[in-house]
Design goal:
This protein is mainly α. It is built from 5 helices and no strands.
């Protein structure tokens, strides 16, 4: 690699910075760690990991509303009003969201690659060079 070519990890950090520029993120979010753990991923993979992390945040916010409403005995209609009046971005994207997203996304990708290799071997298409 020449001195002018940035490392894949630096490229991933740049991609993540651009994707998350308008997101509400926690100050402990470590993009360098995320980039290192996603080595070999492309931009589409990073986008999917970011999407899954954002969904994890939404699930956590909804769960906190459900827990709060269960504790106060609120009816379903009041819960819907609460969700509408409070921002879904009340909690920033955090490292734990990305940890879960990386695990879920890369596990799914690995299963897909394994299935492709099994299919190729069963069909006698040839050796699998996906790993």
């Amino acid at each position: 690699m020449s001195a002018s070519t940035p490392s894949p990890s630096r490229i991933h950090v740049g991609i993540l910075q651009k994707m998350l520029a308008k997101e509400f993120t926690d100050s402990d979010l470590n993009l360098e760690d995320i980039a290192a753990r996603t080595e070999g991923c492309n931009g589409a993979d990073l986008k999917e990991i970011s999407r899954v992390a954002a969904l994890q945040r939404v699930k956590a916010v909804i769960q906190s509303f459900k827990s709060r409403d269960a504790g106060t005995g609120s009816s379903r209609g009041e819960s819907e009003v609460s969700l509408g009046s409070e921002s879904m971005y009340g909690r920033p994207l955090c490292q734990a969201d990305f940890d879960m997203a990386i695990e879920a996304t890369l596990s799914a990708s690995k299963r897909q690659l394994q299935s492709a290799c099994v299919y190729r071997s069963l069909r006698k298409i040839g050796p699998c060079h996906l790993y």
